[in-house]
Specification:
Two copies of one chain form a homodimer.
Chain A (H helix, E strand, L loop, with lengths): L1 H19 L6 H8 L3 H8 L2 H24 L5 H18 L3 H10 L5 H25 L9 H17 L14 H16 L13
Chain lengths: ~210, ~210
């Protein structure tokens, strides 16, 4: 019973922190939204900051666990890029507060940025980076490409899509549908990476 | 003289709003940081909100003007994509507060989101969209690609790079250098778009 109250408080807190940031939400507001009293929330989590830490920890652990599964499989590098993209979309559906919590931490890093946010993002970046490097080694992706750059723009394709959701619908004449966007972004990315599609990529080439 | 005080107040306000958002900055704080008194700031701008509006207006007008120049030229579609990318980097150097102001508006839209932010972003998106559509018509870019999607992931490649600056340096084994990142991202994007590099792109193809 206490466990489910704990989860309920954490879920409602996640929504409020995603909407307003750590500084914008009081423990009283969370207690009120959950329908328990302040003393109960304090007993369960200690403080608003500790509750925020629990929210970040849950979300970033979920993210890292999903990505461990993606990059830990037996598929080839290009297939893993596709699995990564689909996992990002699933994550957005399963944990819609993950993305805003992450962007708020990028704009206003809290005390937990280094130990939670950066640590987990770094972990997943290394996994993606190694995957791209393996594709280059195997001769599937272009030589000269910096895997760190490829990871950055692969991530950017998806993060900006979520960040710009407010703009979608009226921003462009034919609003992007999620599945179409995902498939076309992946196709452009993988074609762009493919060896033989064009000469080597180097930083100086343009 | 009054004009230069006005600009000085606006520039310092831009920095503070970029760091803390509209709700996080008081008129007193801006006055203090500028070294003028509150009454002078109020006389010049009317209120903190009006000052914020002036900051957004200046930044988003600069952005739209730069992009009008990029997309209004005689270059071909692929060259315009390159010019766009370089203009984004220049803008970041010339007006470093533009990006955080934009991201804060995406996370917490103010009263000025619709009339300023969305209006200008929409304007530039149409320009990019038309440019991609022209590339498809000319047979340079793949058929079946939704120009709105291409604009979205082109923008994402750059926005996430700036958004993730906090993470750069220690996030990946070989931290991306700005020029190298720009050139490689462009190369992947343009190769991915190029007709003939692979079969047609459709939303269903993967």
């Amino acid at each position: 019973m206490e466990n489910s109250t704990r989860e309920r408080v954490r879920d409602i807190a996640a929504k409020l922190f995603a909407e307003k940031g750590l500084a914008g939400v009081s423990l009283q507001e969370i207690a009120q939204a959950t329908g328990v009293d302040d003393a109960e929330v304090t007993k369960l989590f200690g403080s608003g900051e500790k509750l925020y830490e629990a929210v970040l920890e849950t979300h970033f652990t979920l993210y890292a666990t999903r990505m461990d599964a993606v990059f830990g499989g037996d598929e080839g590098p290009a297939d893993k890029v596709e699995l990564y993209a689909h996992a990002m979309c699933d994550l957005h559906k399963q944990a819609p507060h993950f993305f805003p919590l992450f962007y708020r931490e990028l704009l206003n890093p809290s005390l937990f940025f280094e130990p939670i946010v950066k640590k987990k993002i770094q972990h997943v970046s290394y996994l993606s980076d190694n995957n791209i490097a393996k594709g280059i080694q195997k001769g599937q992706f272009k030589r000269g490409l910096n895997p760190a750059n490829a990871t950055m723009f692969l991530a950017g394709m998806f993060h900006y899509y979520y960040l710009a959701r407010h703009l979608r619908g009226s921003l462009l004449p034919e609003p992007a549908n999620e599945e179409e966007y995902l498939n076309q972004a992946l196709k452009v990315f993988l074609t762009g990476l493919k060896k033989g599609a064009e000469a080597n990529i180097t930083g100086q080439a343009l």
